[in-house]
Amino acid sequence: MVLSMDRWIGKVAVVTGASSGIGAAIAERLVKEGLKVAGLARRDDRLEDLAKKLSSQKGIFLPIKTDISKESDILNAFKKIKEQLGPIHILVNNAGIVPPGSNILEGNIDAWTNIFEVNVIGLCIATREAIKDMKANNVNGHIIHINSILGHQVIQFKNMSLYPATKFAVTALAETLRLELGNQKSKIKITNVSPGLVDTEIIGAAKESPAFKEIIANQAILFPEDIADGVVYALSTPPHVQIQELTIRPVTEPKF
Ligand SMILES: NC(=O)c1ccc[n+]([C@@H]2O[C@H](COP(=O)([O-])OP(=O)(O)OC[C@H]3O[C@@H](n4cnc5c(N)ncnc54)[C@H](OP(=O)(O)O)[C@@H]3O)[C@@H](O)[C@H]2O)c1
Question: Of the listed 8, 163, 168, 212, which one is catalytic?
Fold first, then answer.
């Protein structure tokens, strides 16, 4: 199998949650590969900083302030992308949260609704809009969901209770989409990328804990660039090859 990013050079990729962590690393890598990347997130100051950082690279970075939990924001973002960059070829559904108060025993419905709106419903809306545009332009594009190992198994993590449920939903949604696309004989690819623990802001206050310091000392953690490498691998496969699931874990498993 010959791996190459050549067919994506100059093409349009959308990365949700591009203001930090894994999304920022994926956006940066795709711009360096020569793609036109629209980065969506709420913190537009972070997106603007990334745009400045990438201004002399091969590709283009277009920051678009978007709340992925709001359909109107997503529709406006996709309109802007089509007008300013052109037909969409790649969508990386990366935006995700673990909001405080989402536990089952003490949680509240606002937190529960919010985590599903961002991690699941927003992903569905962005996917629908991207595929609509790919079909309108006869683009055999690629949809990538940034899932989690917690989308395949529920393991002990503090304050995580609804998070695995949203990621299990993402696993099911990737396969449902694969069936829907297959029924239409579409050549659009769908890849589910499932990382283990990655050093990003989503870890939150736990970063200050002794357990986390031990994880770092034991190198039991991945970095956002490792996941960007995985995304580029899936994108680099020839048109007839589809990476269905890519699980990326640190060699030493973290202990909490
Ligand atoms: N870190 C890990 O250990 C790990 C492991 C497996 C999977 N993941 C997954 O990786 C993805 C990225 O997370 P990360 O680890 O890189 O954490 P992160 O640094 O906190 O990044 C999360 C991103 O999602 C965006 N986001 C959150 N709510 C949003 C909203 N309402 N609208 C638009 N964007 C929103 C954030 O942007 P704004 O706040 O600026 O909106 C940010 O860019 C998530 O789906 C997460 O579940 C992470």
Answer: 163
Number of domains in the chain: 1
pLDDT confidence tier of residue 256, bands split at 50, 70 and 90? low
- pLDDT tens for residues 20-36? 999 999 999 999 999 99
Residue nearest to atom 45 of ligand 1 (CA): 96
Listed in sequence order, the residues at least 6 apart from 100 whose beta carbon sits closer than 8 Å to its beta carbon are 111, 159
- The Cα–Cα gap between 202 and 97 comes to 7
Active-site residue flag, 163: yes
- 256 part of a folded domain: no
Whether the predicted pLDDT of 196 surpasses 90: yes
Predicted confidence (pLDDT) at residue 206 exceeds the cutoff of 90: no
Q: Which domain holds residue 148?
A: 6-248
Whose CA is closest to atom 41 on ligand 1? 42
Whether residue 168 is contained in a domain is answered as: yes
Residue 254: inside a domain, yes or no? no
